[in-house]
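B., you asked whether I could sanity-check this one before it goes into the benchmark set. Here's the sequence:
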Amino acid sequence: MGEPAGIGPELALKTWHLHRHDLPPFFIIADPGHLASLAQRLAWTVPIIAIDHPGDAMDAFSRGLPVLSEALPSEVKPGSLDPRNARAVIAAISRAVDLVQDGQAAAVVTNPIHKAALYEAGFNHPGHTEYLAELAGGDPTPVMMLVGGGLRVVPVTIHLALREALSALDAGLIVEHGRIVARALTADFGIARPKLAVAGLNPHAGEAGSMGREEIEMIGPAVKALRAEGIDAEGPLPPDTMFHAGARQRYDAQLCMYHDQALIPIKTLAFDSGVNVTLGLPFVRTSPDHGTAFDIAGTGTANEASLVAALRLAAEIAATRVPASLAAV
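And here's what the prediction gave me:
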């Protein structure tokens, strides 16, 4: 369900309301009473059907939005954060992962959370991705891929200050991300021999060392190591020419060195429809590429395109990995 006071719950309602005929069946783990109240507030005809088991969603989906109950202890006011509901938000995520790992659902599609509220409930992870990696067990390396606008971009370093990102970046990290991305492109996207574009760090990819030596001493050797493993990687490439229309057609994914290098192009091309995919997990997870949007929560004006795209992509990946038909939101 994501943060109940944000736009996530109404996006689930809106998605069923407007797109149920051209989406694979899905169900939401949330408070049925809250969703029913929200549908009434928005004057949307969305019957809420409480289900006891994920398998019940298949029959229910044509008649209403199937909801696996996760009760909220405090009444929700759209746009107003209430930390008392944080434990239910965390429980919904954990429950969705359990269902997917047990084979009762095909994928996890997460609505946006508000981390500050979760921290008060003992949540000690930087975000969704790191928590999902813990729930997965073992020692997975989760990798964030953003999909949309003809791009599949992967930032090697993510939520770090730029100075810290540069310090964290090394050849080993680039190679690890390249391996995970190449495997996922084959296993999850059905691309037999994926081709990776690897961005340089400096302007003009360092211009032979005149504007930085990271390309020569770190990124270039990482690309060489990936090629030695049989991965078709090209780079380091000048970041300012990697994303134009012609370049986008030559590569299956773009490996970027830091957050904004990856997210600026995809948000320019697919601001409303980009999808966050977590690679490296033993289950399928996608998410809309936006936040909780408290300022418009409860108004019904939030754009559902990213959630629709996230559901579609989750179903496609799940079918490529293992044929299945349900997604848990």
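One thing to flag: Residues 150-269 form a domain with the Isopropylmalate Dehydrogenase fold (CATH 3.40.718.10). Otherwise nothing jumped out at me.
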